[in-house]
Amino acid sequence: MTTQVIAVEQPVERPVESQWSIVRRRFLRHRMAVSSLILLVVLFGASLLAPWIAPFPRDAIDLNAQFLAPMSRNPATGALHILGTDHIGRDLFTRVLYSARISLMLAVLVATLTSVIGAIMGLLAGYYLGWVDTLITRSLEFISTFPFLTILLILTSLLLQSPDLIPIPGAFIALIQYGTGVPGDEAASLALIVLALAVLSWTGTARLMRGMVLSVREQPFIESARALGASNRRIIMRHVLPNSLPPLIVDYTLAINGVLVLESALSFLGYGVQDPTPTWGNILAIAESNMLNHPWMPLVPGIPLVIAALAVNFVGDGIRDAFDPRSVLGGAGATG
Amino acid sequence: MAAFLIRRIAQMIIVILLSSVVSYALLNIAPGGPLTFLREMNNSGRTRVTPEDVARIKARFELDLDLHIRFSRWLIGVPDGPLVIGGQTYLADWVIGCKTPGKVRLRYPDGTTEIIEEGCAAPLTLQDLVDGPPRRDSRGILFGDFGLSQAILRDRPITVLIESRLPYTIALMGMSTLLSILIGVPIGVYSAVRQYSRFDYTMTTMAFLGASLPTFFVGIMAILIFAIGAKGAGLPYLPPGDASAARDYVVPLLGTITKESPLDYVLHFIMPCGILVFTSVAGWSRFVRASMLDVMKQDYVRTARAKGVRERIVILKHALRNALIPFITLLAGTLPGLFAGAIITETIFNWPGMGRLLIDALGRFDYTVAMAVLYVTIVLTMIGYLLSDVLYTIVDPRIRLN
Question: CA of B227: how far to CAs of A208, B212, B213, B222, in Å?
């Protein structure tokens, strides 16, 4: 072959970058968010390994070793209690470690459930309008008139009193048991708290989603999809949902933080996770009632809680900035 | 305006009625009712409970009435007897409940028997409300009669309980809201005027911390530092809890504090109030900042500047006044909080207010008290919404309600 190919000027290769890779790139530039994410992964990973790395069994009571200060040794056995012991001699390092998994898992579960319920409600209301919209909007307005913490406390206290009131599917309890790694009977009461939190907090997501759908559904590409004969189901799943996803994801990460703090507040007040099951909130409640004599105690569960809450917030901040093309990177989160 | 008000009030009444149905439903599924207790006593065999006892206790808690009658008596206090119009009584023998339930003995194939309650042996009529065992006449929760407290103040009206706690909550919430507005608004305005300055960044970070730190941890840290730590170091310290001291105490530099003296109250007030201000000032300042930034971009602000109005006047008179309009919604939103109190803060500092009352009530299974707190908060929320709508039209004449 001797034909000379005339050198056609090569077209300029422009890398086509999908929205997701842009988002990933922008997120990775947010240093606080990335380090917070790594921190959370390490914390969660450590708590997954708790049965192997924790020095004591989770609920091992030792009445000879009450209120031991951090880094002190058990008077009888000489075993080291890294973060001390509580009022009945349980090792706090062990319990704080186990709590990380329970608290983080509950936060993720509730946030997921809330987002799914909220997104479905918002999609239905925003897409179908008419009586569906009226019904959903009215009911979320109604739920919003309830003072949140008050009704939540009353609800969880009632549910914890009579656990048989609401039949919970076994699969759901199994999911919680698997996720948090607690025994079955404890998982059942965790399930009640998850449900109470989810039922009361979907309204914000629904409102957000409805707003998004209302603006997306007027776009020309929805009209053309409809003109091509696409079914409602297809339009919702293929066009409306993906286009309203970014704010939903941001909302989701913020919800995780909200639930993390809310669950610990509930457990702190005594109407969340109940005692043998450890969470940062209920360890803090025990610490609070003994802190006049043992001032170090509240710091043991408090510091991990604050670090986790800040870390989740930073990650949320990073994700929001990554999705928002107008945001200047290195703003609020980076200086904090 | 009148038409709008009427429609809004009608909506409000519907929501309030619906919430009372929800409250009442919650109240009825509440465990630990008096009859559960009786049945347990009976089953344990230690104390014999006669049918008369059961009937009396049922009448006392109105459990012998039909659910809808009970609800109506709880809500509006009627019916409280037969209808009397012009000396004539009507509906005297309208059956509204059951004095003693019928008993049916079930015999199972394996020879065991069981007595279950079925049907009604002696029906209860409207006249029996007057003739029968004495009942408490309620004006109904809609008219401010919340019934009796079952555990916290045994058999005293809940109204008394609320009246004793309300001043503490109003003092705490009122003062802290006022202070956080007084601090938050100037910070917000300054942050907006000097956007992206060092001050703005610092305040943004503070707001971020204030929003992500759990209140209860901030409160506990405050007690650790200002009460326990300061006392241990021999510095002037703040009392860690309660609204006043039970006995006199000595604080360095301040000398002996007499119990229940004004200074004693002030010292107890500082920490809970300070925590509430710390956690809410961020929210106010962020809100004012966003609102100010929005307004500063408006044409009339540019026009004012172009006319040569001094910057100070532009900010305070043209921008701030308009930026504060959305503020009113938030302000009306604090009304229910004023009543319900800050549950977490009050619990940490053992502050004898409404939030603490709710936690106490739940802890002692006094669900009627918990429902009263919930109910009043809902009513106040609705009033708050209405107020903010009305205030909007007054402050911003551009808004027409119809």
Answer: 43, 24, 20, 7
Top pLDDT among B243 and B29 is at: B243
Distance between CA atoms of residues A177 and A105, nearest Å: 10
User: Domain residues for A127?
Assistant: 39-335
Q: Are residues B240 and B385 in the same domain?
A: yes
Question: Mean pLDDT in chain B?
Answer: 81
Cβ distance B362 to A165 less than 8 Å, yes or no, reads no
Give the length of chain A: 336
- Residue ranges of the alpha helices (H) in B194-261? 198-212, 215-222, 230-232
**Whether the Cβ atoms of residue A128 and residue A213 lie closer than 8 Å to each other:** no
**Whether residue B166 sits in one domain with residue B139:** no
| Cis, bond preceding B240 (omega within 30 deg of 0) | no
Specify if B31 maps to a domain.
Answer: no
φ and ψ of A292, to 5 deg: -65, -35
Model pTM? 0.83
Distances (CA, A) of A173 to A58, A166, A178, B348: 21, 13, 8, 33
Q: Which domain holds residue B353?
A: 160-395
Distance (Å) from the alpha carbon of B277 to chain A's nearest alpha carbon: 19
The partner residue sitting opposite A158, judged by closest CB among B26, B220, B343, is B26
What sign does the dihedral A48-A49-A53-A58 (CA atoms) show? positive
pLDDT digits (tens, 9 = 90+) for A61-77: 788 777 877 877 877 78
Alpha helices by DSSP H, A54-147: 92-128, 130-145
- Residue A283: its pLDDT value, please? 92
Angle between helix axes A170-180 and A184-201 (nearest 10 degrees) is: 100
Token digits of residue B136? 């408490």
Q: What is the ipTM of this complex?
A: 0.80
Other Cβ atoms closer than 10 A to B299: 7
What whole-number percentage of chain B has pLDDT above 90? Answer: 5
Identify whether the C-beta of residue A39 lies closer than 8 Å to the C-beta of residue A259: no
User: What are the pLDDT digits (tens) for A296-311?
Assistant: 888 999 999 999 988 9
Cα gap A54→A101, rounded to integer Å:
13
In angstroms, the CA B278 to CA B284 distance is 11
Task: Give me the percent of chain B exceeding a pLDDT of 70.
Answer: 92
Residue identified by tokens 């001291």 is B245
Residues of B in contact with A291 (CB under 8 A): 220, 223-224, 228
CB pairs under 8 A between A and B: 123
Taking Cα atoms as reference points, which of B115, B97, B98 lies closest to residue B106?
B115
Residue at A258 is within a domain: yes
| pLDDT confidence of residue B182 | 92
> Do A82 and A55 contact (CB within 8 A), yes or no?
yes
Tell me if chain B has a CB within 8 Å of the CB of A332. yes
Rounded average pLDDT over B56-77: 78
